[in-house]
Design brief:
Elements (H helix, E strand, L loop, with lengths): L2 E4 L4 E4 L9 E8 L8 H10 L12 E5 L8 H12 L6 E2 L3 H6 L8 E2 L66 E5 L8 H5 L5 E3 L6 E3 L9 H5 L5 E4 L4 E4 L4 H4 L14 H4 L6 E7 L13 H8 L4 E2 L10 E4 L6 H8 L3 H9 L3 H6 L12 E5 L3 E7 L2 E6 L2 E5 L5 E6 L16
Parallel strand pairs: 3-14
Antiparallel strand pairs: 1-2, 3-12, 4-7, 5-6, 8-9, 10-11, 13-14, 15-18, 16-17, 18-19
Length: 429
């Protein structure tokens, strides 16, 4: 297989096709610390795209409770087990020193992954010894698609106890139990496993925005994409005998949806988010697969400058374009397995945010239109304090968002205004 460069792994890797990057890439950041698990995003997608016969099991957008939940059931645990079986103990990372990492900010921000990816481990044939395959994967059983909310809100038992339920009261600030919500959509990867595995070449990345689509005319429903996708976001539809997946609401992204008025807009799941956990946009791409440096693009800032947003299971090797700000209350070992070695840095930066990071975090879900650039107007100092032993200063800055043409979309302040209902309006009914 040809070698392509994967900046999330910090090294070249094997992939069935030659490297070819879109002009710009659709990407998103989700702040898990804010997710309510309300499933509003799930239902927004369902009511828009997958409400017809044969799509009953299709949840292109879903929110699952970790560590036990997953859709299909245990999708990540099963893939991690296969990868470990193909390369025992190999999912390790080598950290470069801070000077080297700073000089290679876009090329290897997390160090170097030493293990095998799902493409490099395919020749191990741990799933089907009698057959060759392009991608290491598995085909979920029908029952695994039946319970999208299984184990919702279920925490693991404390150490030394059996079962999944916690008995007795809990006291803050120390958490004796934990779980968190993981909101998921297709990552529209730079090196999609579904595309690599399709024998019909029915799957392709759009050159204008990197969105991964399935050509329904070419698809014959072999389900190779379902087997190969490590995130299980390609799904088979029995009524049409073809596979379908998230299309990133591309009419909204390209500005051709009647609602957009010609302006690129965020997808339905993003626009419906109540918890304001999501930001979505388009980033410029270099031909080696790295992001073009664009300091004022909020996605670039969060991923490459502040480094608080991390890819989901980067060791799979698909270079996903979905990034997550990891939850600060979860055991670090679990998070490192899920988001790679950048977890400690990301959580520390998020818990005691710098002035610019705090301003950029205010951009989440303030508008349905895609933000291409931001500026900050400095405001007065509000107060000083200490958080986790580190000094913290809050400034009431104004952050301004711009569209792709440089027109202002909106402006918002860091400190939220306080409104008090007047006495004559105590009851509005």
């Amino acid at each position: 297989m040809p070698d392509v460069y994967n900046w999330q792994l910090g090294r070249p890797m094997a992939y069935p096709y030659e490297q070819a990057m879109p002009k710009r890439q659709w990407a998103f950041v989700m702040n898990i610390n804010r997710c309510l698990g309300c499933q509003t995003c799930t239902m927004a997608c369902k009511s828009t795209w997958t409400f017809e016969r044969g799509q009953e099991h299709m949840w292109w957008a879903n929110v699952e409770t970790k560590p036990y939940g997953g859709y299909p059931y245990a999708w990540d645990v099963k893939l991690l087990e296969l990868l470990d079986k193909a390369n025992p103990g190999g999912m390790t990372w080598s950290e470069s020193d801070s000077d080297e990492r700073d000089s290679a900010l876009r090329a290897a921000p997390y160090g170097t992954y030493d293990g095998k990816t799902i493409f490099e481990a395919a020749d191990s044939r741990v799933t089907r010894p009698e057959h060759s395959q392009r991608v290491l994967g598995y085909l979920p059983a029908d029952a695994e698609w039946a319970t999208p909310n299984l184990h919702e809100d279920v925490p693991p038992a404390p150490a030394g106890e059996k079962g999944q339920w916690v008995r007795g009261g809990l006291s803050l600030p120390e958490h004796k139990a934990w779980f968190f919500y993981l909101a998921r959509v297709c990552n529209h990867c730079s090196y999609p496993a579904c595309l690599a595995a399709c024998p019909r070449q029915a799957i392709y990345k759009r050159p204008e925005d990197g969105i991964v689509l399935i050509d329904q005319e070419r698809c014959r429903g072999y389900r190779k994409c379902v087997e190969a996708c490590p995130y299980k976001k390609a799904m088979y539809r029995p009524t049409t005998r073809t596979s379908e997946k998230c299309i990133a609401c591309y009419p909204r992204v390209e500005g051709s949806d009647p609602e957009t008025g010609g302006c690129p807009m965020e997808t339905r799941c993003m626009a419906a988010c109540i918890g304001q956990i999501r930001m979505q946009g388009l980033v410029q791409m270099e031909q080696d697969g790295t992001w073009t440096k664009d300091r004022q693009n909020p996605l670039y800032y969060l991923v490459h400058e502040a480094k608080v947003a991390l890819p989901l299971y980067p060791q799979f090797g698909t270079e996903p374009n979905g990034f997550y700000i990891p939850p600060r209350w979860v055991p670090r070992g679990y998070l490192r397995q899920m988001f790679g070695p950048g977890v400690d840095h990301a959580i520390e930066r998020y818990m005691v945010p710098e002035r610019e990071l705090l301003a950029v975090l205010q951009l989440f879900r303030k508008d349905n239109r895609i933000i291409f650039r931001y500026e900050i107007e400095e405001g007065p100092k509000v107060f000083e304090t200490e958080i986790h032993g580190k000094p913290f200063t809050l400034y009431d800055d104004t952050v301004i968002a711009f569209d792709e043409h440089g027109s202002e979309l909106f402006r918002t302040k860091v400190e939220e205004p306080l409104y008090e209902r007047p006495p004559e309006r105590l009851n509005s009914i």
